[in-house]
């Protein structure tokens, strides 16, 4: 056993020096104090980094298929009334959704931005009071109501029992309602008066859309949109004005759920129309993004960049449909953000490097100072002797 201990003793890389050979100096004490303070500061700095999370970013090819794109928006139009404002969406696959109402909410606002009314559906509810039947007569007792579509019926079984259904039938035909006062359903519901009552008001519209994950656009425009030949038009021509003020404030616009720490570039953006009429366009490049927090919770969302352009009728674009248009395209690259802690072994390595490095540097400085002092003392003594 003594031989084993002797072999271990011979392997000792840290030979001990007898305390009788120690020589403590004032400079050595100062260097020790300073190095200890620096060591503590660096240690706490490294420990703070170890406690906090770091985010690792990676770029990968987006191979997802069959997914939907969720668009959340909150836009305020201070000079367009809610009864005329509609939301449409379409994409390059040819799918169109005109005058979207599902998950769309409108708030009537006055000139000062105060909320007057919040509603989800269109204007009013039908008042069935001896309405005009499809056969041309008035509703009789115990007779089932089937209102006329005023020539816009697509089949013999079609009925239009409200002003909104008549407008929808006309839109599908590619027609515009030139005088809503001639439509029995609109007249009974007070449709015209309710539009006139909103004169001078604005509208806050918010909600969400679910669209195909392909390039497309969605837009906010006055009137219900329809296509006649190759021209994009809107109904309610009786209420069309020479100009529409499409000034707007985008309170919020996001593609998917919110990502912690990410601010979307169009949030709180305000634009004021200066020319008489036109179309404001936003061109968005959407980047699929996956965010995973330190607990492993995953958020599938998107980030986007944006450029802007305004088309005015003053520049010769006379067939412009006024409104605010958002054209989006998707990037084939997906970004992943992953929160994680610094590994403990990495922290231990950094702390060891700090301690060892400071001890080494302090030892070199102390040796340099000590030998300098010793040489200076020797010169002084030699000068006195001479």
TrEMBL record:
Membrane-spanning ranges: 21-44, 344-369
User: Can you say what this protein is called?
Assistant: Endoplasmic reticulum-Golgi intermediate compartment protein 3-like protein
- Subcellular location as annotated: Membrane
Looking at the record, the residues that make up the Endoplasmic reticulum vesicle transporter C-terminal domain are 149-366
Q: Which domain of life is it from?
A: Eukaryota
User: Start and end of every Endoplasmic reticulum vesicle transporter N-terminal domain?
Assistant: 8-97
Q: Which InterPro entries match?
A: Erv, Erv_C, Erv_N
Give Gene Ontology CC terms: COPII-coated ER to Golgi transport vesicle; endoplasmic reticulum; membrane
**Which terms are listed as keywords in the entry?**
Membrane, Transmembrane, Transmembrane helix
What span is annotated as the signal peptide, if there is one? none
């Amino acid at each position: 056993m003594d031989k084993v201990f002797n072999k271990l003793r011979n392997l000792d890389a840290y030979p001990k020096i007898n305390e009788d050979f120690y020589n403590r100096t004032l400079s050595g004490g100062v260097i020790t104090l300073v190095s200890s303070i620096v060591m503590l500061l660096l240690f706490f700095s490294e420990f703070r980094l170890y406690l906090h999370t770091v985010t690792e970013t990676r770029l990968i090819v987006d191979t997802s298929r069959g997914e939907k794109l969720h668009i959340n928006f909150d836009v305020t139009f201070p000079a367009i009334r809610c009864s005329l404002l509609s939301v449409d969406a379409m994409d390059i696959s040819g799918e169109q959704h005109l005058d979207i109402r599902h998950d769309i909410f409108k708030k009537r606002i006055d000139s000062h931005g105060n909320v007057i009314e919040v509603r989800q559906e269109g204007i009013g509810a039908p008042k069935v009071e001896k309405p005009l039947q499809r056969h041309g007569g008035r509703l009789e007792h115990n007779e089932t109501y089937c209102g006329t579509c005023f020539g816009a019926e697509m089949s013999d079984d079609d009925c239009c029992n409200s002003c909104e259904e008549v407008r929808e039938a006309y839109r599908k035909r590619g027609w515009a309602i030139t005088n809503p006062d001639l439509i029995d359903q609109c007249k009974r519901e007070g449709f015209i008066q309710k539009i006139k009552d909103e004169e001078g008001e604005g509208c806050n519209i918010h909600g969400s859309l679910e669209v195909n994950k392909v390039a497309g656009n969605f837009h906010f425009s006055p009137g219900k949109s329809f296509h006649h030949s190759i021209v994009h038009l809107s109904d309610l021509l009786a209420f069309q004005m020479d100009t529409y003020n499409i000034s707007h404030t985008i309170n919020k616009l996001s593609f998917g759920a919110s990502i912690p720490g990410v601010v979307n570039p169009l949030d709180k953006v305000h634009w004021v129309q200066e020319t008489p009429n036109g179309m404001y366009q936003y061109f968005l490049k959407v980047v699929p993004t996956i965010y995973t927090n330190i607990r492993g919770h995953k958020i599938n969302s998107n980030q986007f960049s944006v450029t802007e352009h305004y088309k005015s009728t003053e520049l010769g674009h006379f067939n412009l449909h006024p409104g605010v248009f958002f054209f989006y395209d998707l990037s084939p690259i997906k970004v992943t953000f992953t929160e994680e802690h610094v590994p403990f072994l990495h922290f231990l390595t950094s702390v060891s490097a700090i301690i060892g490095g400071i001890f080494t540097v302090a030892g070199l400085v102390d040796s340099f100072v000590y030998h300098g002092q010793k040489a200076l003392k020797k010169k002084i003594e030699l000068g006195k002797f001479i």
